[in-house]
Design a protein that fits this description.
Elements: E1 3-8, H1 9-20, H2 30-48, E2 52-56, H3 63-69, H4 90-113, E3 117-119, H5 126-136, E4 141-145, E5 160-164, E6 169-170, H6 180-190, H7 206-214, H8 216-223, E7 226-232, E8 238-244, H9 245-256, H10 263-278, H11 285-294, H12 298-302, H13 305-312
Parallel strand pairs: 1-2, 1-4, 2-3, 4-5
Antiparallel strand pairs: 5-6, 7-8
């Protein structure tokens, strides 16, 4: 059994960005962001002594955004993650745009100048690629580092561990009776306000969801529920739209269940993972040092031995 350490790099970099860049500040501190991210990689590499390290990145304009922008197929017309980056100042928008560019720089560095397995592909989110990798290597040990709670659904495989980097502790399914399917069942009713995914049955009580999970009759009644949502458009006009719970529940499954992506997306996930495994790069020591000097990461250079094993793609025994 191999041990794979999967790092949700977009999640980690953004977390370090918001921790080290004050909204009122005028300067963007990418150096601190890079330093924190590289130290996090080294920390977990040492702690779990994995055979391989997998760096995973989001890409903008994911298939979920494209799906929800298509008014002919999307039931709610709520654009996926459209509520992100709202009400930002011009300074904050500029900083985040810079961060997006630096994420590209970091991903390209890892792809071209290190021996890490790097997963990144147009239209795919880190969620898709991490889930695809875990599903492909389901008989190996997979340790996921991310503060994204949605990865809890992957804990149906006893070989998967999810570590929250905010606390350093492993998440579990105790709140959902140690049942990943129950977690997703509830989530598809609740939706996800953080990702702008609408509830399929607003204000539904938890006890009713739990009963519906095991009772087909109760579940069928819930799925047939109809309700109206009122919104005010940009012109101040009140609009009403009627929904059927079953239709929204199924759409929420498509958007949030990491086994329910469209078939063409599943194929793209598989091809991306295979290509990353087949075409791994090699560690270029001089180029990595040049990157560190560019971003004034002298502390990394002074402790380069802590990073060489990680960046070379070598695993245990270091």
């Amino acid at each position: 059994m191999n041990t794979y350490l999967l790092l949700d790099l977009s999640n980690l970099v953004y977390r370090h960005f918001f921790a080290n860049n004050k909204p009122t500040g005028s300067e963007f501190d990418i150096e601190m962001c890079y330093l924190a991210t590289l130290n996090t990689l080294a920390k977990y590499h040492r702690e779990y002594n994995a055979n391989d390290v997998v760096a995973v990145f989001d890409m903008p304009n994911s298939w979920r955004k494209l799906y929800t922008k298509d008014k002919d197929v999307c039931k709610t017309h709520k654009i996926y993650k459209a509520n992100r980056r709202q009400n930002l100042t011009e300074s904050e928008k500029r900083k985040l745009a810079e961060l997006d560019n630096h994420l590209d720089e970091l991903a390209n560095l890892f792809i071209e100048k290190t021996g890490l397995i790097v997963l990144r592909r147009k239209y795919l989110e880190a969620d898709d690629l991490i889930a695809g990798f875990v599903q492909k290597f389901k008989n190996d040990k997979n340790i996921i580092i991310s503060s994204d709670k949605d990865f809890i659904q992957l804990l149906d495989n006893g070989n998967v561990t999810l570590i929250d980097p905010l606390s350093g502790k492993a998440r579990d399914l105790s709140e959902w009776d140690h049942d990943a399917k129950y977690f997703m069942f509830e989530k598809c009713f609740r939706g996800d306000s953080g990702d702008n995914v609408q509830s399929s049955y607003p204000r539904l009580r938890s006890e009713k969801i739990k009963r519906a999970y095991t009772d087909n009759f109760i579940r069928a009644n819930l799925m047939n529920h109809q309700f109206v949502v009122e919104t005010i458009d940009t012109n101040g006009v009140l609009k009403q739209k009627e929904y059927i719970t079953k239709e929204l529940f199924e759409e929420n499954q498509l958007l949030m269940d990491l086994t329910k992506q469209p078939e063409y997306i599943r194929e793209l996930m598989d091809k991306t993972i295979e290509a990353s495994l087949t075409n791994r790069g090699k560690y270029h020591f001089v180029d990595f040092i040049r990157f560190c000097r560019k971003h004034q990461l002298q502390i990394i250079i002074d402790n380069i031995s802590r990073f060489s094993g990680l960046l070379s793609g070598r695993g245990r025994g270091l």
